[in-house]
Design a protein that fits this description.
By secondary structure, the protein is an alpha/beta fold. The protein has 10 helices and 8 strands. It has one domain: Alanine racemase (TIM Barrel), CATH 3.20.20.10. The protein is about 45% helix and about 15% strand.
Length: about 230
């Protein structure tokens, strides 16, 4: 795999500059924005390097890959391991819930009440309060999962009663279309309105390398950035 370490610091600085410009343009507080570095397919060395440049949040799409990296860091780089906050971003299969609850600080991709109940049950067994985000399907793409906009309010009301879950916010993925940023804007705007109807204090995880400025405009707090950091 091509080693990008010499480029990584410059990439992070460029992303941070883009975020600062977008915040200034839209009257947002830069301190309200959290960068999750998406490390799917990246070696542990890149994670260590990203952490050394001040990033604190690591996002993975697959539980098994994350477990291997986490164990590697614990054994070989314990200081960096303690500094990292881990986010589950990809679709979580129910048979991976046990490992996910052990590892992840945030599970962003809770896309059904059934999955939420399984996470709650496992968190109860381990004595953990699991922070989660509810994934909302804000486009018509058949490949996307998540709660439908019309059902998310009732689902959130039901799931907030579970003692070992803490709903921190909502997450969505913009559609991949020929209309690009226009459709991303519609998707992010919809999630913002949903959040305002449920609880204005909820966090919004939305926006990736190509569209995070639009996400900031619509109120995003968590940006999931992979290519912009790692190439």
């Amino acid at each position: 795999m091509y080693n990008i370490l010499p480029m990584l610091r410059d990439n992070i600085l460029k992303v941070q500059e883009r975020i600062a410009v977008a915040c200034s343009k839209n009257g947002r507080d830069l301190a309200d924005i959290r960068i999750v570095a998406v490390t799917k397919g990246r070696p542990v060395e890149d994670i260590v390097e990203a952490l050394s440049y001040g990033l604190t949040d690591i996002g993975e799409n697959r539980v098994q890959e994350a477990v291997l990296k986490y164990k590697n860091l614990q054994i070989n780089r314990p200081i960096e391991s303690k500094a990292a906050h881990w986010h589950m971003l990809g679709h979580l299969q129910t048979n991976k819930v046990k490992d996910a609850v052990k590892l992840f600080d945030f599970i962003q991709s809770v896309d059904s009440t059934g999955l939420a109940y399984k996470i709650n049950d496992q968190a109860e067994k381990t004595g953990k309060i699991q922070d989660i985000l509810l994934e909302v399907k804000t486009s018509n793409e058949i490949t996307k999962t998540g709660f439908l906009p019309e059902e998310i309010s009732d689902a959130a009301g039901q799931l907030c009663m579970l003692k070992n879950l803490r709903i921190k916010g909502l997450m969505t993925i913009a559609p991949v279309t020929q209309n690009g940023l226009h459709d991303a804007h519609l998707s992010f705007s919809l999630l913002r309105r949903i959040k305002d109807n449920i609880d204005t204090n909820l966090l919004l995880s939305m926006g990736m390398t190509d569209d995070f400025e639009v996400a900031i405009e619509e109120g995003a707090n968590i940006l999931r950035i992979g290519r912009g950091i790692f190439g």
